[in-house]
Write a structure and sequence with these properties.
Multiheme cytochrome fold; mainly alpha
């Protein structure tokens, strides 16, 4: 076997192995469920039980799912956020390196804050007035006072 053929065999075997492991992992982790809007997808990871139970008992259950508050509402933003969060959730869960009480990062906090402001725009404008729409630094944080509205923390 010449060197070029051997490199092709090694490359093909490596790609086949990666594809096989990736497919197995995707199936085992119920990866397709994350493409849906079903809140039960978040329950694939046992660490989310408390958040799911809190949402079930919240006033938002009848009007919002996890994605409504935790993913942007445009197609690319939604699925890129889901992919990014899914990767890091899987990574930290697999490595066992996550806090006992799950914590939101700054990027996802902003997404959630924007969701609050979008759904409750009339209330936000009544509180802040129309002049603050463009001033990020002067905005009141919805999550500062209403952190446990969608689910308990």
């Amino acid at each position: 076997m010449n060197q070029m053929t051997m490199a092709g065999v090694v490359f093909g075997a490596t790609m086949g192995l990666a594809l096989g492991v990736g497919t197995y992992t995707f199936m085992y982790a119920k990866g397709a469920s994350y493409l849906t809007n079903d809140p039960k997808a978040c329950m694939n990871c046992h660490i989310m039980q408390e958040q799911y139970d809190g949402w079930i008992n919240s006033s938002h259950r009848s009007v919002a799912t996890c994605n409504d508050c935790h993913a942007p509402h445009d197609l690319i933003g939604k699925y890129s956020t889901k992919a990014r969060n899914g990767f890091w959730h899987s990574f930290y869960f697999t490595m066992g390196n996550y806090p006992e009480h799950i914590q939101i990062n700054e990027r996802n906090r902003k997404i959630t804050e924007d969701a609050c402001r979008r759904c409750h725009a009339d209330i936000v404008e009544a509180i802040e007035g129309p002049a603050l729409k463009n001033s990020e630094a002067d905005k009141t944080s919805c999550l500062r006072c209403h952190r446990s509205v969608g689910h308990l923390h």
